[in-house]
């Protein structure tokens, strides 16, 4: 495989679980099984559906806005703003919310790609597996 270029405006998957405008740019659907990069816009007042990455750490770089990172596993709420990075360890139930009256724009995602979650939401076939 060679170097390729992708653009946030032409994602190969959009996932409403994350937001009305969650664009999967780099993920197994593009051949990347060990990395994942999503471009996500949360409208003011919008939040992710709380979810868990069972095999992946989630790293989210906040480009714009401010909001709250909810850690449901440990009953923690942390505020963030542009320039912050939210890191979610494997197995932590979490959600990101644009709950401070402004839109939140971020890039990042689980690494390695969360294949079980992608299968569960129908983004990958049940028999999809990383290449050997």
From TrEMBL:
Molecular functions per Gene Ontology: dioxygenase activity
Keywords annotated in UniProt: Dioxygenase, Oxidoreductase
Residue ranges occupied by any Cupin type-2 domain in the UniProt entry: 39-100
Signal peptide segment: none
Gene3D superfamilies with a match to the protein in the record: Jelly Rolls
Record-linked SUPFAM superfamilies: RmlC-like cupins
Pfam families for the chain: Cupin_2
InterPro entries for this protein: Cupin_2 (IPR013096), RmlC-like_jellyroll (IPR014710), RmlC_Cupin_sf (IPR011051)
Protein name (database record): Quercetin dioxygenase-like cupin family protein
Organism: Chelatococcus asaccharovorans
């Amino acid at each position: 495989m060679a170097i390729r270029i992708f653009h946030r405006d032409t994602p190969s998957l959009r996932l409403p679980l994350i937001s009305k405008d969650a664009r999967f740019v780099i993920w197994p659907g593009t051949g990347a099984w060990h990395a994942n990069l999503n471009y996500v816009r949360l409208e003011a007042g919008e939040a992710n559906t709380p979810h868990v990455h069972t095999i992946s750490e989630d790293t989210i770089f906040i480009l714009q806005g401010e909001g709250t990172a909810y850690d449901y596993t440990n009953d923690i709420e942390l505020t963030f703003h542009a320039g912050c990075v939210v890191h979610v360890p494997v197995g932590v139930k979490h959600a990101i919310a644009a709950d401070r009256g402004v839109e939140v724009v971020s890039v990042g995602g689980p690494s390695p790609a969360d294949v079980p979650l992608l299968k569960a939401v129908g983004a990958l076939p049940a028999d999809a597996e990383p290449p050997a």
